[in-house]
Design goal:
By secondary structure, this protein is α+β, with helices and mostly antiparallel strands. The chain contains six helices and five strands. A hairpin with a 2-residue loop joins strand 2 and strand 3.
């Protein structure tokens, strides 16, 4: 497998994102636009970034100083667990409250209170699981 959140990994993640209508179509309905960083807790910056326009991933790659709307961080072990077995809402809530999943940028509470965003957020972990070796 490509290194987690590397350029190649992020490109594959964007393809998986765009191939899941339950993910991108739901975000398209609310005109969701965002730049999302993904990285390892404790590192200075995220490793990868995904740019979303109207629910679709329009660019993906290594982080290069882009301004982020969301910056999600966890340990490599936790990312690996969530990628191999995507968590549900309860699992993500627990991960957030126990600080296993951190939002360095972005408002987790506002997101999970909005079902139009919470459902696709859960589905994004399943899309990560589609990234091939």
């Amino acid at each position: 497998m490509s290194q987690l959140f590397s350029d190649g990994w992020m490109q594959s993640f964007a393809e998986a994102w765009n191939s899941d209508p339950g993910l991108f179509e739901e975000l398209e309905k609310i005109s969701f636009n965002s730049v999302i960083g993904y990285g390892i807790d404790g590192e200075d910056s995220p490793r990868g970034v995904l740019s979303i326009e109207n629910g679709k991933a329009v660019s993906a790659g290594e982080y290069d100083g882009q301004e982020l709307n969301w910056d999600l961080r966890a340990s490599e072990d936790h990312w690996g667990k969530w990628i191999s077995k995507p968590p549900g809402m309860m699992g993500l809530g627990t991960a957030y409250t126990t600080r296993k999943l951190k939002f360095n940028v972005g408002d987790y509470t506002a997101m999970v209170k909005d079902p139009r965003m919470a459902g696709p957020f859960i589905k994004s972990f399943a899309a990560m699981g589609q990234v091939s070796d």
